[in-house]
Q: What sequence folds into this?
């Protein structure tokens, strides 16, 4: 019960920050609010028994993301977004999509339901056999690096591709000699 | 139907819709990227909330613990977080180049500039 | 930057940040952690150094060539572990063939794989920061 209350309170804080980000026009404020949002997201993930994910979200979301966005903000030299005209179309679309998706999630398991299918299929096998087969007590690392190692290879390749994509976009070329 | 147990999903959907609203209703490219980031992070809650069991602990095998939370969503979301920051970095690099080429990062001004160029080419 | 508080605190904290990153990397088997977290923490420590002492100083300590090599080296290491699995008689990315005792082979495979992930992630994050931070200045074009 107390777990559900903690998660609900953190989600309410994130919702308040989300509304503030929607309405904020100063880009520096938007980026700082996004950093705070990432921190509260990391706390929520820790409250949901996911310390690996919380550590990654805190380091990546509140650390590297914020630095990269501030660096880009300095390069675009814009501090304020233009005031948005009050069109009603996007709001209607968003509310409609939200209601449809919320109706769709009624089929998902309730908070903390041990009988739901995700706890009865492959996960118990990983939790029971993981330590014996891989010798690694952290089951998340065992699944990430051993049982689902291909996915992690794909993800490392995605990070590599993003790196060389940014290098290709932002690298300065050597100035051509005049006359060549 | 017990909808009180779905509060985590409703919270995640509210954050998702806030991010979607920013992407489709705001013109500034940097703000759109922040909205996309909000959309992505709200999906993490949607994945990890069903794996949590009350009275369980994080999925690190320890002495004397019998109930563990589900480790599979954690693995998926670890990948998703890193892919998210890769997307953000590429998006920001594109915004920087757009600013250098067009002089603005507001979407309506960019569309106007492109329409200008096409009109001039048609003449 | 001439602020004495930042310089002193930076010199005290950055070594501990790098040490913590190594701890997270190698104890990812026994507690929360692993390659991604360690890579990002190392990148954050060097970014912190660059913010305090200037980008040129940071480029002197961790040169561009080294960072670009790290970006590619991690993926090569990961794929290399897979090829080692083939060479030693199993399928691609089989860890149990890497040692006579299959559980020990799993340990080895996971160790090198996580090392490869950490190297690539830290290299990419740092290179992206160098590119963003170095673009706004009027410096001679670097290859």
A:
């Amino acid at each position: 019960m107390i777990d559900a209350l903690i998660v609900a309170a953190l989600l309410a804080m994130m919702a308040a920050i989300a509304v503030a980000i929607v309405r904020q026009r100063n880009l520096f404020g938007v980026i700082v609010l996004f950093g705070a949002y990432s921190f509260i997201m990391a706390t929520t993930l820790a409250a949901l028994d996911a310390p690996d994910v919380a550590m990654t979200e805190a380091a990546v979301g509140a650390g590297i993301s914020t630095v990269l966005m501030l660096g880009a903000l300095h390069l675009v030299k814009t501090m304020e977004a233009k005031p948005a005209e009050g069109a009603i179309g996007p709001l209607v679309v968003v509310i409609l999509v939200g209601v449809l998706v919320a109706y769709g999630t009624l089929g998902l398991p309730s908070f903390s339901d041990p009988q739901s299918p995700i706890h009865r299929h492959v996960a118990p096998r990983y939790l029971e056999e993981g330590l014996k087969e891989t010798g690694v007590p952290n089951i998340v690392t065992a699944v990430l690096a051993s049982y689902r190692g291909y996915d992690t290879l794909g993800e490392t390749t995605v990070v590599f591709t993003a790196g060389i994509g940014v290098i290709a976009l932002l690298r300065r070329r050597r100035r051509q000699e005049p006359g060549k | 139907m017990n909808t009180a147990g779905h509060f985590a999903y409703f919270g995640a959907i509210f954050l998702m819709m806030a991010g979607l609203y920013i992407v489709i209703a705001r013109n500034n490219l940097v703000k759109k990227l922040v909205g996309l980031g909000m959309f992505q992070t709200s999906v993490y809650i949607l994945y990890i909330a069903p794996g949590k069991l009350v009275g369980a602990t994080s999925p690190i095998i320890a002495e004397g613990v019998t109930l563990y939370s589900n480790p599979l969503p954690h693995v998926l979301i670890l990948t998703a977080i890193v892919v998210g920051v890769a997307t953000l970095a590429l998006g920001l690099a594109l915004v920087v180049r757009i600013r250098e080429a067009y002089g603005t990062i507001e979407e309506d001004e960019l569309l106007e500039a492109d329409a200008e160029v096409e009109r001039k080419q048609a003449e | 930057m001439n602020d004495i508080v930042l310089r002193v605190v930076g010199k005290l904290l950055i070594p501990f940040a790098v040490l913590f990153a190594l701890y997270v990397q190698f104890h990812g088997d026994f507690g929360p952690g692993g390659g991604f977290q360690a890579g990002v923490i190392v990148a954050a420590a060097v970014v912190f150094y660059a913010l305090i002492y200037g980008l040129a100083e940071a480029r002197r300590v961790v040169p561009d060539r080294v960072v670009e090599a790290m970006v590619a080296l991690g993926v090569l290491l990961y794929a290399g572990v897979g090829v080692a699995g083939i060479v030693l008689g199993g399928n691609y990315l089989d860890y149990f063939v890497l040692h006579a005792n299959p559980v020990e082979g799993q340990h080895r495979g996971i160790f090198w794989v996580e090392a490869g992930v950490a190297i690539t992630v830290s290299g990419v994050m740092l290179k992206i920061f160098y590119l963003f931070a170095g673009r706004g200045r009027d410096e001679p074009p670097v290859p």
